[in-house]
Amino acid sequence: MDISQLAQFNPWWTEKAVPTALLGSQKRPYFGLVKKNLENKFIILLYGLRRVGKTTILYQTIQEILSKSINPLSIFYFSFDEQVAGIKEVIDLYEEKVVKTKTSKEKYFFFFDEIQKVEDWQNQIKILYDTHPGLKIFISGSSSLSLQKQASESLAGRLIDILVKPLSFGEFLDWQNIRIDAKNPEVYQTSAQPLLMDYLRKGGFPEITFEKENELIKTYLKNAILERILYRDLPQEFGLKDIELLKTLIELFARHPGMIVNINNLSRDLARSKITIANYLEYLKYAMLIREVKNIRPGFLTTSRKGKKIYPTTTALGFVFQNDFYNEANLQHIAETAVANQLDAQYYYKNSFEVDFVQRSNGQILPIEVKYGKPDQTQLVKFQKKFKIQKAILVTKDYFQLNKNGIDSLPLWFFLAQ
């Protein structure tokens, strides 16, 4: 590695500004969270699925720092996504060739992208933090909560972690200059609801928000996200050889969102060992491609070890794999997936009857049922009676009614826009 490679990552050294093409067209709320913490010493960690805009937020942060008349040479960005290098190696080169001094005492800003590619990164960052009192560190990674867990364990008391998600439907509408007034939502139905299908097929990935061509959208989703993760990220990080199994599993979950996973059946049907199936499910969770929703037991304190449901973490996967994406029957599953991701759902209920999602917060229980067809409240009413729950939510296609027997019936577009 030489100075020319570092310079390519840091065009503001010579141009005094971040190139406009790197800044994106919009600032997301996550940028505000980062900006609010620019002046303190805490390490900022951005983590989340690939292509949700983490790097753009880093570039926007760099531009914000430059706007404060900070010396451009004191801002150092490096991505480990394409380069095989160590943290110390790139810092040594930066100190020797760029600033020509040690960075342990003065004010510097270090940005490390795709940090999960570096072995033992968390301890290296800890040492850097502890030995460089004037240093502000920003890191990002494209993987799951395990990245956040590694960081919180090794960098306790030093870290602010921010999970960057795909665009919410509310953000998607905002980018289209549509802002919903929650007090009069019906007024916005004619402008917001037609954009719902557009949002669901694109999955909230910022770069394709304004793309119109279905084939270009599918190509982007396949090449920039799925194939990058399945063919490169996971094999490189874990030494995986059975790429076909990864593809088969993710396609299965995209085509059948909310399916109950039975390891024994998958092992038999896919001719792989149960351990292999279980491990590959963990890899897909690590890459943030799927989420697990568990069956919560009566009492709401524990979950069943069996009967876990799997949902894709974005509705866009359904668009990639399903030719009948807009089929009315299929849209029920797409709607469930969208609601699961909006809620960060962890639980559902199934005993003598079933409720799609159960939210548990501060001792309060909220059942949520998705009925994209007929707005049937039967399951919610059963749940309310059995557990003496006063409030529930029914997510519908277009039916809107508040507080009928304690049940709020909300159209999907409105539920997602909140």
UniProtKB/TrEMBL annotation:
Which residues belong to any copy of the AAA domain? 42-173
All copies of the DUF4143 domain together span 232-373
Name the InterPro entries for this protein.
AAA_14, DUF4143, P-loop_NTPase
Indicate what this protein is called per its UniProt record. Answer: AAA+ ATPase domain-containing protein
What superkingdom heads the lineage?
Bacteria
Which residues constitute the signal peptide according to the record?
none
Q: Which SUPFAM superfamilies does the protein's record reference?
A: P-loop containing nucleoside triphosphate hydrolases
